Amino acid sequence: MGPLALQRMRLAGMAALFALMLGLVGETIWTNWGIARTESGNAKALKFGYINPQGELVIPAKFDVAFDFSEGLAPVHDAFRVGYIDTQGAFAISPFFESAGTFSEGLAPVQIDGKVGYVDQDGALVIEARFFPAGPFSQGLAPAAIDGVFGYIGHDGEYIIQPAFSSALPFTEDLAAVEIDERIGYVDTRGTFVIPPRFEAAGPFANGRAPILLDGSWRFIDREGTFTGTQAYEEVGALSEGLYAFQKDGLWGYADETGAAVISPRYEDARPFAEGLAPVQVNGLFGYIDRTGSMVIPPAYQKAYSFRDGLARVRVAAGKARSASADGADED
Fold this sequence. Notes:
β28 and β29 form a beta hairpin. By secondary structure, this protein is mainly β. 43% of the residues are buried. The protein is built from two helices and 32 strands. The longest helix has 8 residues.
């Protein structure tokens, strides 16, 4: 499943299900907006670490759960609690939280006693933990729910857009996807619908376009809600660095903003480009391609994610990593 699957948008507003899933053991998969949800797994020997653009593991694979870097910090699990490491792999904020999201605008959502608040980069709680779920700040606003109903709060923790939605994504380009009456539309920063709720699922705007699901097919709309292009896909990823991943006949490739395929569908899975590289899955393992489709980091990882702050999180056998010249083989 790609990053904008229907289930992900729908599950975002279901606090009870989140609470259940947070208690499971295994790899944690994050929603688009931050707080963790968990799926069970049986590959306990696999750990997360971080590689550089040369494919070298520069932060050892020792974390059961780890997430992307943002603003120089990344949340990782340690002994069933979450803290934040710096780009050297040292804890900058000690493990204390039940779950946590990435930093944005100097704040990160964290879970304490089943509720979500926000900490600064010193680890100080600056917005009381009273929401569930809640996501990252963007354009001065963060989606946050009380009793399962989402609104948007400001940096002081007070609602700027009052709770009215069953799920909500962060703002991008002055618009945010929200769900009401089991349909999704887009509101502006005042909370007014500018694209009426009629979609089955939706993703964030980038360069004036957003992916939406309607009648079982993924397409793109502009800021007026008008369809752009004639392409329809089984699934699409977010537009990033001028390209988006798309699925056709069960395989993934990449298209440009016009919808023209620039990397033909040939991968089992594909994730967004970031910092010039994108993780793709070949024969069950992930490697990284450049914008020409050339494999620059050979497939060697059970899981792999986009680069952030010069580092990408990958999941490998504990204690193993691909060396700079290993051509994709794991070695001790």
